[in-house]
TrEMBL record:
Top EC class of this enzyme: isomerase
Every Chorismate-utilising enzyme C-terminal domain range: 118-378
Alphabetic keyword roster: Isomerase
EC numbers on record: 5.4.4.2
Protein name: isochorismate synthase
Entry keyword annotation includes Isomerase: yes
UniProt xrefs under Pfam families: Chorismate_bind
Similarity remark: Belongs to the isochorismate synthase family.
Catalytic activity: chorismate = isochorismate
InterPro entries: ADC_synthase, Chorismate_C, IsoChor_synthase
Highest rank taxon of the organism: Bacteria
Length: 391
């Protein structure tokens, strides 16, 4: 018989929490999703090409267990960041595990919107004018907020706070290239959207588009808002454009593609989204998760329709380069398995600065003030993780 004396320490933290605690800025990258958590430490080598054939070939040379982690930028023509880590550890999903670390005090300093909120409304109006003129059906426009703090911002408590608030989301902290400087650069976030996963023959994509702010304090109002989103013709159209594009791009590569006729609702702590899970099977070993992610990216959930026209509109209308925001973060391995998550509800931390972004899909019928408000709610994910009240 075993007995527990009062002096016996409490059970150690569950495995995924230990993995979360093991991540430090500059040490590597950490991911967590419904299938599990992964910590990739160190850099064994940096892959010079992110061409999916070349990556798969290189990983196979390194061995059956080889894996590459990193980030793909929004602009597929910009350099991606893929490394083979020195060491990989996996754990169970964070799931509902309570990550109960104390929140450290919020940074002091300044918040600088880029552009100013009124200018963002002007950008939406510009997109609507382009749509009215013809040739553009949907475009996603983003805005940024810079936190310029008085002292270096520590991404560790931010990541733990993201995990505490939404342990079921796709959480990530990706170590980005530092261009020779010593200060680590981390992209971290809690994304609700799976771009693409491949596990064995099973392929899954989960496009989201169409959003409504939740009313967490009032369950009846919260439910009403979700139902209104599901019934909204404008949001259903915005969503359908994404699903059609994802299905069309997967069809040549994937067998038995299942595309539900209608979306369902998913919730983050702050937003309702329209969601469709698309599934299929991939028979060959040569079509990796990275191949499939690159075939889909950038979907109309982050770019628009038609893709090239929307991409040009984003470049012309947005006042900044998105970098890795609205790109994808994740991993791909020598077997072709992998998981790529949309880099949304995220921020880039470097020294005293944190840049946060949020975007919204614009279709005919969108209203500039509503889209501004929606991006404000999306920005809350990272502002809350920083302990900051205002946007
Ligand atoms: C571009 C973002 O969200 C995308 C993903 C889900 C819903 C979206 C929307 O309803 O506009 C966006 O397409 C963002 O969070 O910055």
């Amino acid at each position: 018989m075993t007995s527990t004396s009062p002096a016996t320490p409490l059970p150690v933290a569950p495995d995924p929490v230990r993995l979360l605690r093991a991540w430090t800025p500059g040490s590597g990258s950490w991911f967590s999703g419904p299938r599990g958590a992964l910590l990739a430490r160190g850099t064994r080598l940096r892959l010079p090409s992110t061409d999916a054939d070349a990556v798969l070939r290189r990983l196979r040379e390194l061995g059956d267990d080889a894996l590459a982690v990193g980030a793909l930028p929004f602009d597929p023509a910009a350099p991606a960041h893929l490394v083979v880590p020195e060491d990989v550890e996996r754990a169970d999903p964070l799931g509902a595990v309570l990550v109960a670390d104390p929140v450290t005090s919020p940074p002091t300093g300044e918040l600088r919107p880029d552009p100013a909120p009124a200018a963002y409304e002007g950008m939406v109006a510009e997109a609507l004018a382009r749509m009215a003129a013809g040739g553009l059906d949907k475009v996603v426009l983003a805005r940024a907020v810079d936190v310029v703090a008085d002292a270096p911002v520590d991404p560790v408590p931010m990541l733990r706070e993201l995990a505490r608030r939404d342990p079921r989301s796709y959480l990530f902290a990706v170590d980005l290239p530092t261009d020779g400087l010593r200060t680590p650069r981390t992209l971290l976030g809690a994304s609700p959207e799976l771009l693409l996963s491949r596990h064995g023959t099973e392929v899954t994509a989960n496009p989201l588009a169409g959003s409504a702010a939740r009313a967490a304090a009032d369950p009846d109002e919260d439910r009403r808002r979700g139902e209104a989103l599901l019934a909204s013709a404008k949001d259903r159209h915005e969503h359908a454009l994404v699903v059609a594009d994802v299905a069309a791009r997967l069809r040549p590569l994937v067998d038995d593609l299942e595309v539900p006729d209608a979306p369902c609702l998913v919730a983050t702590p702050t937003l309702w989204h329209l969601s469709t899970t698309v599934r299929g099977r991939v028979a060959g070993r040569d079509v990796s998760a990275l191949h499939l992610a690159q075939a889909l990216h950038p979907t109309p959930a982050v770019c628009g329709v038609p893709r090239e026209v929307a991409h040009a509109a984003i470049t012309e209308i947005e006042p900044f380069d998105r970098g890795f925001y609205t790109g994808a973060v994740g991993w791909t391995d020598a077997r072709g398995d992998g998981e790529w998550v949309m880099a949304l509800r995220c921020g880039e931390v470097r020294g005293e600065r944190v840049r946060l972004w949020a975007g919204a899909g614009i279709v005919p019928g969108s209203r500039p003030a509503d889209e501004l408000a929606e991006t404000g709610v999306k920005l809350r994910t990272l502002l809350d993780a920083l302990g900051l009240d205002e946007a």
